[in-house]
């Protein structure tokens, strides 16, 4: 009997652990614009929640919108998720606008905190990123709008939510509060906090699976360091700054050859900016105006326009910066807090750095042998093809000439070969005498 006691004790501890073990609910938190890093974070959250055998994954959402490509990726992840997805628009005062509306309607259960809003899903930017050569015309805008309306209708219908309101959120940018959303069957739950949400989720069935969430342990899946970094860096402001670094670095290197570091930094920034432009909704018209501004700044260095082209360049740069992300959601557009300082710094950079550098390259040579070319001196001895002498900069130089030169005659230095100067006779008095 004594031999069996340790085994029986182990079995008892194991069974006791199974009894006291509570259910878990995984959570992720989205606070800010929807982008590629957000989609990766949610995908990882779904994978980890499934690995933990969590009752569900609660996405705590507060967003002003984001990129449609990233939104579509999140919706697809929701639809293929092995664990139930609950989107909870929180905290009070938060919103699920634009892309957030699509994401909320794509969840298995949609919940909102009191005093939150949802809606305004009218498409501002459709499809992938990259440069658009021109703003879409009315026909293209209508196509984008119809596509977004059909897409959100499909999402709402899949979960038996109000299809008509979903369509109006796209067509009319309709926005409603949490109470109205519950009344219109846009969401299923209004919960004041996470504990209240878990109590209301308990016992609900999703795809034949009954949830046991009352008193469940919350397990928060946090953003990884890489996801947090990309969430902060994958922004229009960062791409704009990279573009400025590329401009300053490359043109600074060209105007002051040999510095090396500005050119290297500029090239790296250019590659990163081009990579980001493949995702972010960059306007081709805005980018063209910025390129035009750079051209005007450079031309004004060489052309005496009394600053007219510089003024035009400043105006073109400012307008181009305003238009650079005009097709994006408001949360993904550049603010004047970035545009105005960037315009002033760029104008000053071209006036005082690039301008001075290019002007310095055009100045005549003031040191070295090249300064001797064109100098006029008197021949100290007769000079012919075999040689002669001249006094130049306080030194005696051997001189040769294709035409015979008499002693005391004025000659002009036309070339230098080692320690021998090539001269040619000049009519009239010497201009310089060394």
Report on the architecture of this protein.
With 434 residues, the protein is an alpha/beta fold. The protein folds into 3 domains: 18-229, 2-enoyl-CoA Hydratase, Chain A, domain 1; 235-362, no CATH class; 369-425, Nucleic acid-binding proteins (OB fold (Dihydrolipoamide Acetyltransferase, E2P)). It contains 14 helices and 18 strands. It has helices spanning 5-20, 36-51, 68-79, 99-105, 138-158, 163-171, 178-183, 194-201, 225-233, 236-255, 261-277, 284-302, 308-323, 336-362, and strands at residues 24-31, 57-62, 85-89, 95-97, 109-112, 117-119, 130-132, 175-177, 189-190, 205-206, 209-210, 217-220, 281-283, 376-378, 388-392, 395-401, 410-417, 420-425. The strands form 5 sheets. A 6-stranded parallel beta sheet has the order 9-5-3-2-1-12, sandwiched between helices. Strands 14-17-18-16-15 form a 5-stranded mixed beta sheet, with no helix packed on it. Strand 17 and strand 18 form a beta hairpin. Helix 5 packs antiparallel against helix 6 and helix 12 packs antiparallel against helix 13. The radius of gyration is 37 Å and the shape is elongated.
Give the helix/strand layout:
Blueprint: H1 5-20, E1 24-31, H2 36-51, E2 57-62, H3 68-79, E3 85-89, E4 95-97, H4 99-105, E5 109-112, E6 117-119, E7 130-132, H5 138-158, H6 163-171, E8 175-177, H7 178-183, E9 189-190, H8 194-201, E10 205-206, E11 209-210, E12 217-220, H9 225-233, H10 236-255, H11 261-277, E13 281-283, H12 284-302, H13 308-323, H14 336-362, E14 376-378, E15 388-392, E16 395-401, E17 410-417, E18 420-425
Parallel strand pairs: 1-2, 1-12, 2-3, 3-5, 4-6, 5-9, 7-13, 16-18
Antiparallel strand pairs: 6-8, 10-11, 14-17, 15-16, 17-18
């Amino acid at each position: 009997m004594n031999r069996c006691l340790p085994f029986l004790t182990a079995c008892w501890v194991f069974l006791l652990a199974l009894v006291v073990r509570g259910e878990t609910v995984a959570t992720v938190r989205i606070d800010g614009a929807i982008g590629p890093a957000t989609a990766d974070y949610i995908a990882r959250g779904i994978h980890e929640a499934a690995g933990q055998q969590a009752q569900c994954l609660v996405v705590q959402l507060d967003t002003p919108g984001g990129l449609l490509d990233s939104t579509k990726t999140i919706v697809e992840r929701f639809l293929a998720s092995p664990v139930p997805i609950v989107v909870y628009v929180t905290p009070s005062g938060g919103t699920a606008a634009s892309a957030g509306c699509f994401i909320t309607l794509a969840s298995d259960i949609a919940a909102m905190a009191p005093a939150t809003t949802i809606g305004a899903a009218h498409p501002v930017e459709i499809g992938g990123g990259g440069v658009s050569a021109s703003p879409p015309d009315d026909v293209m805008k209508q196509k984008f709008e119809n596509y977004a309306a059909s897409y959100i209708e499909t999402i709402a219908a899949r979960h038996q939510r109000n299809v008509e309101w979903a369509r109006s959120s796209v067509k009319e940018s309709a926005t409603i509060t949490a109470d109205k959303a519950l009344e219109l069957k846009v969401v299923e739950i209004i919960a004041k906090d996470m504990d209240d949400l878990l109590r209301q989720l308990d016992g609900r069935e999703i795809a034949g699976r009954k949830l046991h969430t009352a008193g469940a342990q919350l397990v928060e899946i946090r953003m990884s360091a890489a996801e947090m970094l990309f969430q902060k860096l994958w922004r229009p402001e960062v791409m704009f700054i990279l573009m400025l670094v590329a401009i300053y670095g490359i043109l600074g290197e060209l105007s002051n050859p040999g510095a090396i570091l500005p050119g290297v930094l500029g090239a790296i920034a250019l590659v990163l900016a081009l990579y980001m432009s493949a995702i972010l909704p960059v306007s081709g018209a805005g980018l063209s105006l910025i390129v035009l501004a750079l051209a005007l700044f450079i031309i004004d260095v060489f052309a005496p326009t009394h600053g007219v082209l510089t003024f035009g360049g400043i105006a073109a740069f400012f307008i181009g910066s305003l238009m650079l992300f005009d097709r994006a959601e408001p949360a993904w557009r550049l603010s004047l807090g970035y545009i105005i300082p960037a315009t002033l710094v760029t104008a000053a950079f071209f006036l005082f750095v690039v301008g001075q550098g290019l002007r310095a390259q055009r100045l005549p040579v003031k040191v070295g042998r090249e300064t001797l070319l064109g100098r006029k001196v008197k021949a100290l001895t007769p000079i012919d093809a075999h040689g002669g002498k001249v006094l130049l900069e306080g030194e005696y130089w051997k001189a040769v000439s294709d035409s015979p030169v008499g002693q005391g005659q004025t000659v002009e230095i036309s070339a230098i070969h080692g320690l021998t100067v090539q001269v040619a006779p000049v009519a009239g008095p010497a201009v310089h005498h060394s």
